[in-house]
Amino acid sequence: MPDQCNAVVLDNVRLRLGARDFLFDCRIPKGTITAVAGPSGSGKSTLLNLIAGFETPDHGRLSIEGEDVRGVLPSDRPVSLIFQDNNLFAHLDLFTNVGLGINPGLHLGAKEREMVSTALERVGLKGFERRRPSTLSGGERQRVAFARALVRRKPVLLLDEPFAALDPGSRSAMADLLQALHRETRNTVVIITHDADEVARLAEHVLFVDRGRISFSGPVEVFLQRRDIEAVRAFLGG
Ligand SMILES: Nc1ncnc2c1ncn2[C@@H]1O[C@H](COP(=O)(O)OP(=O)(O)OP(=O)(O)O)[C@@H](O)[C@H]1O
């Protein structure tokens, strides 16, 4: 596949962390939802941290949206992030938490304030603007994190197990919201998940990480049939 079809390209990216070494050679197709799956400790978060810029490759090339991002600070990369614990500031209200996605200095003009209100409305939190994160449920807090990612308007959205702390009902509501937002924005979504059903339901493309390497990369329909790779078989449940 030509590289302009890929939002993220890792070319023989190597990294050593303590006793563990990682080698990632993979592509993430532009505009897709790509699931990153694999056993615990295999290196899924490390892969996301490399893309986000929280880890620096020892060797290899990493480009995002066609740009070599070696030496580019996390805040200057064309990515936004959502983690399991959603990183909201407890002492700030929701409007302010979302506004920080646009401008860390919080100098918001009328247009930016409108963007924050629209994003909160889009994730179903209209009227919650002055509430603090502690007054919300886990699912609602994740919606705020989504709103903040929406106002950032970055082409790549990285999610590290964003629904792991939620009950099954909220998980599936958030998966629906993610899909709806993806249909609107058509950005590239990369989501770590431990849940085979979530992979089947959400993803178009799958990267399977095993012992610091990519052991499968391809369309979800092919992934779901791959019973010949032992770790994939275990992940899919027999
Ligand atoms: N800074 C570090 N120094 C040493 N080892 C590290 C460091 N960061 C991660 N590791 C190790 O690298 C391995 C991969 O970690 P990583 O968090 O990427 O795995 P994961 O697939 O996301 O796991 P999980 O599904 O359990 O969250 C683990 O064994 C972890 O202990």
From TrEMBL:
Swiss-Prot/TrEMBL keywords: ATP-binding, Cell inner membrane, Cell membrane, Membrane, Nucleotide-binding, Translocase, Transport
Pfam families for the chain: ABC_tran
Ranges in coiled-coil conformation: none
An example molecular function term from Gene Ontology annotations: ATP binding
InterPro entries the record matches: AAA+_ATPase, ABC_SmlMolc_Importer, ABC_transporter-like_ATP-bd, ABC_transporter-like_CS, P-loop_NTPase
The keyword Nucleotide-binding is annotated on this UniProt entry: yes
Occurrences of domain ABC transporter (ranges): 8-236
Domain of life of the source: Bacteria
Similarity section: Belongs to the ABC transporter superfamily.
Protein name as catalogued: ATP-binding cassette domain-containing protein
Organism: Ciceribacter thiooxidans
